[in-house]
Amino acid sequence: RSRHVAPRVGATGAAPFFEMAQRHTTPWWRRCLVYCLVAVVVLGATPALANQVNLLRLYERAERLRHAAVGRSASAKFVPRMPLSAPTVPTQTNQTHAEEVKEHWIDQPLDHWARPSSAVFKQRYYVNDTFWHAGGPVLLYIGGEGRLAPDRAVKGQHVELAQRLGAMLFLVEHRFYGKSLPTNATLTANTLRFLTTQQALADLAYFRVHLGEARNLTSSRWVAIGGSYAGSLAAWFRLKYPHLVDGAWSSSAPLVALEVFPEYDHDVAVMLGNECVNAVHKALTEIESVLSTGGEAREDLMKSFECESVTNDVAFLYVLADTIAYGVQYGKAVHLCPSLLNKTRPAEYVEAYAQFSRAIFREANATCEDFNIAGFTSIHPDEEDCMRQWMWQSCTELGFFQVSNLPGHSVRSRRITVEWHRSVCKRLFDVELQPHATETNILYSGKDFYGSNVFFTNGEKDPWRFLSIMERETPVSICAVVIKGAHHCDDLHQTNYTTDSHALVTARKDISEAVQEFINEAHIAPHYKFLDEDSKRDKEVTVEVFVISSIFIALVSIAIGSVIMWIVMDRRQAYHSLG
Prior knowledge:
Layout: H1 17-23, H2 28-66, E1 104-109, E2 120-128, E3 138-142, H3 157-165, E4 168-172, H4 189-192, H5 197-214, E5 222-227, H6 229-240, E6 247-251, E7 258-260, H7 262-272, H8 274-293, H9 295-304, H10 313-329, H11 336-340, H12 346-363, H13 387-398, E8 399-401, H14 418-429, H15 437-444, E9 454-459, E10 478-483, H16 502-520, H17 533-577
Parallel strand pairs: 3-4, 3-5, 5-6, 6-9, 7-8, 9-10
Antiparallel strand pairs: 1-2, 2-4
């Protein structure tokens, strides 16, 4: 019938809208189209929403883990699926004494990327299987920039964690440190070119595969543990080899490589306070004046600091700054400021500084020469002295050069510059070197860390925390805790119920829960693991959610667009029907 029916005119001379709608008939095919679209949207939304709910549950679980930090509320407490016993210190009845720890060796390729690879070196490692039970997890403690002492196998937070988890504990020494050196190697640039983070991570992967097969631990859950530089390696190992390690605990780890790191000294100055920093500057002014004078005055100055062997003035000034940095980093600087304050004569400031430096040497069981980074010129390896190797890594890959920053915000002399650091690298290795920090950050993503199942811990009073992850919202399985009042790697030390703060005890409990969760379900966030069987299943879920969500959004858009078009066309025809 004709759609052009004259409207009934009311008192206002216009047809009521509802009467117009009643007289207006929509074709049947349009209504069917709309009904079909609505049905498709409903059917498509159901599985998508279900998957979104599952993801939300994963996020909630990870959020509980992330918020398991200092000062959390009781309602935010994260409870793992497997109960944990209270933290206990392993006793001598159920652990091995340090004197009884045996050295083990594995033949590692010197260059993992050489084909064929013929050159090998023997890498040292230790084993503590005292607490392990069949089917239990494996903790891989990674050695850092120094000798791996056998007592690490019997004491420390990693040992207590192995006891609570019933875990096998492996401890691996870093290549080119301690005894893990190529036979008859000399520490020249030509040999040290094999000392890189990539080669070190490949060592860990090789160790994981071969020891896993040799001890029938291939199907066990593996968690990497490390502190400071080794903490970076633990996180990077999880990042680069997620099919070999299920999680990592990364303590005080500098993840960002950079040539110059003035923020370190700035934080040291902030923690000391302006009054103390001013006193240090007064001592430095007098010290630099004496150095420029030379003669007997300089000799007496060097004797007062027990630094007669240091011949370079700038190197000596670097040693002095490093004694303060060491004290602040490890919580040993409590006596510095009281000894410097309330002095009146320049010589008194210098003597107070000398007393503090000598105390730090004794605390570190070292000498002034051990703090002299420009003095590691010997190419002959020494198991106890590994600073030449660390200087190679600093000069070529990581940087971390500590220089003076703005006046009043550093305890380091203004004569310590990036150019001086580069000259030290040239002097040590007889080649022009500069840290490839940008390439390192591209390789490991810096603070934009995109790995998963890593727990980052940092001390509130550790200057290195600025290069680590202190707070993280996403991805969901990257957790970070800053421990109130703690210093560099405090959380890795053996439990001391007399001196440990409440914040430190709480943080260690959070670490245990996080590691337990990595072991229970090694796929909190399935976005980055694609190589093992669990990861493939996680990837399928992620892809399914993505595809269904995309289809859902497309269908909703089509439905909304169709309804809008239908309304517009209907109103347009109604308008024309009115004449």
